[in-house]
């Protein structure tokens, strides 16, 4: 499992995962896997999601050894 706050940010912004998936050009099941930390996105997809949520890739997927 990968550490991520994607699901939390989607929920906090009152968005639907299907809407986010469509906006960034991936399938809803693929976004669900990302949101639950079961897989990692490509860099381009991560950038699109971060931009859509007005945050950074590093915030969405912090490094495993980053305790900050």
Automatic annotation (TrEMBL):
Q: Which domain of life is it from?
A: Bacteria
What CDD domains does its record include? HTH_XRE (cd00093)
Q: Give the InterPro entries listed for this entry.
A: Cro/C1-type_HTH, Lambda_DNA-bd_dom_sf
Which Pfam families does its entry note? HTH_3 (PF01381)
Classification of source organism: Bacteria, Bacillati, Bacillota, Bacilli, Bacillales
* Segments forming domain HTH cro/C1-type: 6-60
Gene3D superfamilies hit by this protein = lambda repressor-like DNA-binding domains (1.10.260.40)
Q: Where does this protein come from, organism-wise? A: Alicyclobacillus cycloheptanicus
Q: What is this protein called?
A: Transcriptional regulator
């Amino acid at each position: 499992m990968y550490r991520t706050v994607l699901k939390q940010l989607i929920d906090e912004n009152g968005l639907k995962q299907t809407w986010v998936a469509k906006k960034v050009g991936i399938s809803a099941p693929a976004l669900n896997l990302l949101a639950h930390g079961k897989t990692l996105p490509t860099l381009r997809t991560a950038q699109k999601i971060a931009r859509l949520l007005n945050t950074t890739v590093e915030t969405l997927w912090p490094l495993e050894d980053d305790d900050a």
